[in-house]
């Protein structure tokens, strides 16, 4: 059975557009068919200070993989493209870092998941205009 997976992508280091395009190609190769891709949106970093602006996009993927397998594979794609740091808890607060690529699972069909590794739908997506505007564009 094919599932509809929406992913959010962001990059604020290096050639941001090329980073997103490479990630989309790997997503298409490893997760399933990239069916739609939004326009790129440039934004300031959210929840941390950096002089590097983000490019963001949202894509729709038709996948046969489970949500957990999609999470593992998107994290592998991030590492393969050179991401070395994930957001971490520091003194009880989430600390974010500049990144070559960030891939977030936004929704997977109408599924609701809450595990230590994964929450679907993404718990902060509705607070983020850089997610909701591109999501509206392609949904």
Gyration radius from CA atoms, angstroms: 14 Å
What is the averaged pLDDT score?
91
Largest sheet: 5 strands, antiparallel
Q: What is the CATH architecture term? A: 2-Layer Sandwich
Name the CATH superfamily assignment.
Answer: 7,8-Dihydro-6-hydroxymethylpterin-pyrophosphokinase HPPK
Count of folded domains: 1
DSSP strand tally: 9
Strand content of the residues, in percent? 25-35%
Describe the protein:
With 139 residues, the chain is an alpha+beta fold. The protein has a single domain, classed as Alpha-Beta Plaits. Helices cover 28% and strands 32% of the residues. It has helices at 16-30, 67-80, 129-138, and strands spanning 3-11, 32-37, 41-43, 54-63, 88-90, 93-95, 102-108, 113-114, 119-120. Strands 1, 2, 3, 4 and 7 form a five-stranded antiparallel β-sheet that branches. The chain has a two-stranded antiparallel sheet with strand order 5-6. Strand 5 (88-90) and strand 6 (93-95) form a beta hairpin. The protein is globular. The protein starts with a strand and ends with a helix. The mean pLDDT is 91.
Sequence-ordered SSE layout with sheet pairings:
Blueprint: E1 3-11, H1 16-30, E2 32-37, E3 41-43, E4 54-63, H2 67-80, E5 88-90, E6 93-95, E7 102-108, E8 113-114, E9 119-120, H3 129-138
Antiparallel strand pairs: 1-4, 1-7, 2-4, 3-4, 5-6, 8-9
Helix pairs in contact: 1-2
Tag the structure with descriptive keywords.
139 residues, alpha+beta, Alpha-Beta Plaits, five-stranded antiparallel β-sheet, two-stranded antiparallel ribbon, 3 helices, 9 strands, 32% strand, globular
């Amino acid at each position: 059975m094919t599932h509809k997976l929406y992913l959010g992508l962001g990059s604020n280091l290096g050639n941001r557009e090329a980073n997103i395009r490479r990630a989309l190609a790997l997503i298409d190769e490893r997760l399933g068919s990239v069916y739609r891709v939004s326009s790129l949106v440039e934004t300031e970093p959210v929840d941390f200070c950096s002089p590097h602006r983000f490019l963001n996009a949202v894509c729709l993927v038709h996948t046969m993989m489970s949500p957990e397998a999609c999470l593992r594979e998107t994290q592998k794609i991030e590492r393969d493209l050179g991401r070395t740091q994930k957001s971490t808890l520091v003194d009880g607060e989430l600390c974010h870092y500049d990144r070559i690529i960030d891939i977030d699972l936004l929704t997977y069909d109408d599924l609701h998941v809450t595990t230590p590794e994964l929450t679907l739908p993404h718990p902060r997506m509705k607070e983020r205009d850089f997610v909701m505007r591109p999501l509206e564009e392609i949904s």
